[in-house]
Design brief:
This protein is 56% helix and 8% strand. By secondary structure, it is an alpha+beta fold. The chain folds into 2 domains: 76 residues, 3-Layer(aba) Sandwich (Glutaredoxin); 129 residues, Glutathione S-transferase Yfyf (Class Pi), Chain A, domain 2 (Up-down Bundle), CATH 1.20.1050. The radius of gyration is 17 Å and the shape is globular. Bound molecules: glutathione.
């Protein structure tokens, strides 16, 4: 696949863009990554995602696909020759979509409040809900190696990019994910043993630097 056929409007520290990079790597699809500067969005980003004006955007044969989970499902359907991400049974597909949606509603919205809000009560409530959500996700994993069972799947792709944020969440929230959810960190490390994941994720300390920059820019104490 020529690079120009598949272009990703990207941002290395973004967990949403990381989902797309992982899915493309799982399918061994070559792509051109174009790093966006969100303080000065490119005309291409504004044209390709005029509704949300957000990355990631996958441009396939000139056509845009927006929203990370929609993009991952698109990738799974178009490059269906290997590494299926969603199961084939409609019930199990619905189940996986439910959990990916849960991750979207709970992890970043609460985790990001730890560095975008100065209000102590808001931060404490967000931290409590974040830890609760990790516990719910840990219960859903159970004793399986991956959310996809024996294989890395859609829910794994949806959640693993937030592993890059664990250090930031822990530092800012003053808690330990491993102490709260002892099975979640081994799951993350298992995922990180896959090249498709480790090469697609941003280093936890780099993410923390980005988070501190955001905090400073917002004037958050
Ligand atoms: N729901 C979106 C979230 C994407 C998102 O929040 N992107 C951020 C970067 S991590 C962005 O582009 N922010 C710029 C803005 O909102 O103006 C997805 O899953 O793709």
């Amino acid at each position: 696949m020529a690079g120009g056929e598949v272009v990703l409007l990207d941002l290395f520290a973004s967990p949403f863009a990381a989902r797309v990079r992982i899915a493309l790597a799982e399918k061994e699809v070559e792509f051109e990554s174009r790093e966006e500067d969100l303080s000065n969005k490119s005309p291409l980003l504004l044209k390709m995602n005029p509704v949300h004006k957000q990355i990631p955007v996958l441009i396939h044969k000139g056509k845009p696909i927006c929203e990370s989970l929609t993009i991952v499902q698109y990738i799974d359907e178009v490059w269906n020759h290997k590494s299926p991400l969603l199961p084939s049974h409609p019930y199990q597909r619905a189940h996986d979509r439910f959990w990916a949606d849960y991750i979207d509603k709970k992890i970043y919205p609460n985790g990001s409040k730890l560095y975008t809000s100065s209000d102590h009560e808001v931060k404490e409530a967000a931290k409590k809900e974040l830890i609760e959500s990790f516990k719910v996700l840990e219960r859903e994993l159970g004793d399986k190696p991956y959310y996809g069972g024996n294989n890395f799947g859609f829910v794994d792709v949806a959640l693993i990019p937030f592993y890059s944020f664990f250090y930031s969440f822990e530092k800012l929230g003053n808690f330990s994910v491993e102490a709260e959810c002892p099975k979640l960190v081994p799951w993350a490390k298992r995922c990180m043993q896959k090249d498709t994941v480790s090469k697609s994720l941003c280093d936890q300390h780099k993410v923390y630097e980005v988070v501190l920059e955001i905090k400073k820019k917002l004037g958050v104490e």
